Amino acid sequence: MERHDLAIIGAGPVGMTLALALKDAGLDIVLLDARPRGAARQDPRVLALSHGTRLTLERLGVWSRLPATPIKTIHVSHQGGLGRALLRADEYGQPALGYVVAAGDLAAALDDALGATGIPVRDNASVSGLAAGAEDVLISLADGSHLSARLAACAEGAIQGSDDTGLIERDYGQHAVISIATPAAAHGQRAWERFTPQGPLAVLPCGSGCAIVHTAAPDDADALMALDDDTYLARLQAHFGSRLRFASVGSRARYPLLLRYRPNPVGQRTVWLGNAAQTLHPVAGQGYNLALRDVWACAQTLLRAGGDPGAADTLAAYARARQLDRQGTIRFTDGLVRLFSTAAAPLKHLRGAGLFALDLLPPARHFVAKRMMFGARAWP
Q: Which parts form a coiled-coil structure per UniProt (predicted)?
């Protein structure tokens, strides 16, 4: 039977990043992807990357290949009430608070770097089941073949037969309608996070345009998707306000928003990373950044431990190291959604007071900014 030290299931940005972080570890690594090779390059999404994520991508040698738009200012407000906060990169001596990149561009840069390592990627290799034993994991593929690995890293989605014990889910009853809009004037590398009773509206600088994440109830999202471009543009402008005018808007896509996570990201000879470990609401743009911190910590734990990558004590050490940041980020994003997605008058006034305090009190503002840049422990 084909045997490996590490089998990474999923060759998207998370799986490829783990392979690159371990390329010099002396491990026999294989990536398994259900899609055709290079499919991740066609990903239409836009990602908000933190400053900490930039540092990791620089270590991996891929940052210079990315066409990234810096976010130098973040404007936070809520609809129907007073109060707003501004976060500025120059307060922290950084060139930017974060960056916006096309997910397809990130995947292409990682794929090119991975190709130079010689680590094999098996495409059209859909995993149908995992069976963990004392010494290895038996990985079953949809074509009826099998292989084994001392450690299986699940980096994308759900896998039949994997351990879903204790999985926590919350449906927010919201869908995200995403698009790229052209502003009437330059965006000035500013991002806007506007909270509304229907859900947050994010406007992110992306090249010369703006990436829009427009949250709405499922029925309202259906209606928004059915509008022609001019009518939707008017609806978007009315919803966002007059801080930035939009001249046009491109095609739209939508996807449901939910919280789904594993309290324990490890099992017998198995580790879950990225969306396989947690799927977060896109508010504050924390999903991929948390995933990358997980990947980097996992790689460093395996490198320090040496020997058997799937050893129980090694995986337990990784889980302990990531507990604070994972739980803190999950609660941070979930709390923002639950606090701001309501029109109740007392909460509206409380939110306004909170935004005023955030703007006027440097320690509170620094806490939020550093969490967004580095995670719960101001990583790295």
A: none
Residue range of the domain that includes 236:
168-248
Give the phi and the psi of residue 169 in degrees, each rounded to 5. Answer: -135, 145
Burial class (CB in 10 A: 0-12, 13-18, 19+), 130: buried
CATH number for position 238: 3.30.9.10
> How many Å apart are CA 288 and CA 301, to the nearest integer?
20
- Element spanning 153, H or E: strand 146-154
Residue 204 lies in a domain: yes
Q: Does residue 370 sit within a domain?
A: no
Residues contacting residue 234 through CB under 8 Å, at least 6 positions apart: none
Instruction: Give the type of residue at 290.
Output: L
Whole-number Å distance between alpha carbons of 16 and 23: 10
pLDDT tens for 39-90 read 999 988 899 998 889 999 999 999 999 999 999 998 888 776 666 778 888 8
- 3-class SS at 36? coil
Is the full-model pTM beyond 0.70? yes
